[in-house]
Design brief:
With 321 residues, the chain is α/β, with parallel strands linked by helices. The protein has eleven helices and 13 strands. The structure holds NADP nicotinamide-adenine-dinucleotide phosphate and guanosine-5'-diphosphate-alpha-D-mannose.
Length: 321
């Protein structure tokens, strides 16, 4: 099959393109032009990059998408591109809405115009649950986003459902809970922590400034989650799915485990800095993935402790290298 991925230079784009190649598909990706020629995470894996067909485009520019869809004619479209950092969405709400809402609308319109018989995945987020009403959130749980980012993902989620219902298109929303890896962006809390633990261990950093240590998240591994995206598009009918581990841990537990992995006590290094607190916080997330298990046969493989260890060890190795 011919696969098109927006956001291919990000964390999930990396694992998804690897999976798609392994499955024998032809992989095409949309890359945003930056002032420096960079391919994000792909710059660390030249072998992978050489197997991909990459096109300059921006999801806010419909003409660039039209030209890519015309050339590629994808069977499977994974729309991952986004302004994905929640904190940033308060500083840049317009960019967040433009990229995440209008960008999704543009992708859906190009899809509808050029490859309506194909299948479309949208990267929705557990941030849509925000002020949670249920102890464990599933596809039926109340959605009450708490940030411009969460609102943008909710608007795009409904746009996807509306396109499915209005035009009979195969569109799936993956409501993914937090997922991490050694390729996670350094501003997200898990990677900020794993990198700091490794640097402090090697004497390259003295302290770690964090915000809310009591926030709880359901953290899984990106490599597991991209498999769920693929399974959604292989299913005979389009639907929306929660993808999660079913476990929740606090930021404090993550720091504790990361520092433990390098033989240190986090309390000697961590400082709470109000700069990293959010205007409105999502205090608690825990996902119920039973629908994905039942309908797709999907389950997470990597658990919390293993994930923390994987990230810290990867950062230690990179820094030592
Ligand atoms: P990420 O690492 O931040 O990657 C985002 C990607 O989007 C990058 O390739 C980025 O390109 C691209 N992008 C941003 N603006 C663009 C634009 N205007 N036009 C074209 N491309 C653009 O995010 P991720 O962790 O892989 O997540 C993938 C998707 O899943 C995102 O939509 C995110 O919101 C969503 N999601 C993530 C999680 C999670 O925990 N990771 C959970 C739920 C949902 P550059 O390299 O040029 O910046
Ligand atoms: N980034 C960051 N930096 N977060 C911190 C810090 C810090 O120094 N200190 C505490 N936190 C807390 C945040 O307040 C939040 O409660 C939690 O750590 C996780 O923050 P992030 O890692 O930035 O992720 P997120 O949960 O806001 O968003 C991620 O997950 C969403 C899915 O629920 C992103 O990947 C989103 O794109 C994704 O949709």
């Amino acid at each position: 099959m011919v696969v098109l991925i927006s956001g291919i230079t990000g964390q999930d784009g990396y694992y998804l393109s690897k999976l798609m190649l392994k499955e024998g598909h032809q992989v095409h990706g949309i890359v945003r032009r930056n002032s420096q020629k960079t391919y994000g995470v792909l710059d660390f894996d030249e072998e992978l990059k050489s197997k991909l067909n990459l096109y300059y485009g921006d999801v806010t520019d419909k003409s660039s998408l039209d030209s890519i869809f015309r050339q590629v004619k994808p069977n499977l479209v994974f729309h991952l591109a986004a302004q994905s950092f929640v904190q940033e969405s308060w500083s840049n709400p317009e960019v967040t809405y433009d990229v995440n809402i209008k960008g999704t609308l543009n992708m859906l319109n190009s899809f509808r115009e050029y490859t309506p018989e194909g299948k479309f995945y949208f990267a929705c987020s557990s941030e849509v649950f925000g002020k949670v009403a249920d102890e464990i959130q599933n596809e039926e749980s109340r959605m009450w986003p708490r940030s411009p980012y969460g609102i943008s993902k909710l608007a795009a989620y409904w746009t996807g459902i509306n396109y499915r219902e209005s035009y009979n298109l195969f569109v799936c929303n993956g409501i993914l809970f937090n997922h991490e890896s050694p390729n996670r962006g350094v501003e997200f809390v898990t990677r900020k922590i794993s990198l700091a633990a490794a640097k402090i261990k090697l004497g390259l950093q003295k302290e770690l400034k964090l915000g809310n240590l009591d926030a709880k998240r359901d953290w899984g591994f990106s490599g597991d989650y991209v498999r769920a995206m693929y399974l959604m598009l292989l299913h005979k009918e389009p639907d929306d799915y929660v993808v999660a581990t079913g476990e929740t841990h606090s930021v404090r537990e993550f720091v504790e485990a990361a520092f433990e992995a390098v033989g240190l006590d986090y309390r000697d290094y961590v400082i709470v800095d109000p700069k990293f607190l959010r205007p409105a916080e999502v205090q608690y997330l825990r996902g119920d993935y039973s629908k994905a298990k039942r309908k797709l046969g999907w389950e997470p493989k990597v658990k919390f402790k293993e994930l923390v260890k994987m990230m810290v060890e990867a950062d230690l190795e990179r820094l030592s290298g």
